[in-house]
Amino acid sequence: MKKELIKKFEEVFGSDGEIKAYFAPGRVNLIGEHTDYNGGHVFPCALTIGTYAIARKREDDKLRFYSMNFEQLGMLEADLKSLAFDKAADWTNYPKGVMWAFQKKGYEISTGFDILLFGNIPNGSGLSSSASVEVVTGVLLKDMLGLDVTMVDIALIGQYAENNFNGVNCGIMDQFSIAMGKKDNAIFLDTSDLSYEYAPIKLENSKIVIISSNKKRGLGDSKYNERRSECETALAEIQKVKAVQSLGELTEEEFHEVESAIADPVRRKRAKHAVYENQRTIKAVKALKENNIALFGKLMNESHVSLRDDYEVTGIELDTLAEAAWEQEGVIGSRMTGAGFGGCTVSIVENDKVESFIDKVGAKYLEKIGYAADFYVVDIGEGARVI
Ligand code: GLA
Hints:
This protein is an alpha+beta fold. It has 11 helices and 13 strands. A 6-stranded mixed beta sheet has the order 5-4-6-3-1-13, with helices on both faces. A hairpin with a 6-residue loop joins strand 10 (about 330-335) and strand 11. Helix 2 packs across helix 3 and helix 3 packs across helix 4. Alpha-D-galactopyranose (GLA) binds near residues 36, 173 and 174.
């Protein structure tokens, strides 16, 4: 793979100078959805699919980008001295945003770059292809410029870029799991203070199956920001009656004691999801540690129901996939993953049932939605790195 990409790089940008290669994975979240901007817990893992970046330093301040996923866009250029969001700059707003964010945080970016990208994360699938591009850019800058920056800082800078350059108010889950991922482990991350713990995922008898609904997120980003601000308003209302920093601090009982402070019933449902989902994530990780995979699966299913009914971010496509999955033999748990509004589900399926699962859920989806879903049996991989 690396060889082929370097060859392509040389075709596009010419062959002199030192060329280096980097990789950042995509991620899937097993449980803990829409909790990361509410001071709660998440439980994601890095995948073995992701984004490759091939790069070479330049002697001026120019940036030249080329993506093998968007060859029709050709080479896109920018200047390090005047980095600004530009709709026409398309996907290059992600690496540009990260460079801008490094500058904002006081790191000197002393030279321009030629950068070629190739990603094998299905586009717009909710497996964090954008965060993967952000983190691979951070690793590239750290390595090529010898910057003194930790992987956690790279994640935070990526999130800062996404929030302030690209205008999506995402939490830290995606960038963190992509930067810090570990083979065969999920990361139990407390987003209130970024403390974390790796939890081995030993699924001897089952596999993780991701299903892409092939429904593009569309309005997803604005709806995402809307959910976030609903939670912020609900928190402000609760703070009038109880001293808390975030919804993630509340247990289910504590929430019921103060929920009447939230004036609007829709906002009350949103906050309820944030509180319950956080508690569910804590319970799920405990269940996993106790080898109670059946309980882990049940909590995954409950997570989907809460995202469907209280948080309202699923939609007919993701509901069809999750509900079809629940009906199948050998399914331990299944839920939407990521932001929602399209994107993917994640299921844990017993090894010898995977084939029939794919056939049956695939047929149901096609029949109800009118186009096909894509299935990926995935492995948990390492975080972002030089390759
Ligand atoms: C997106 C965001 C994350 C997180 C999830 C929902 O992936 O980027 O920060 O909020 O949605 O859990």
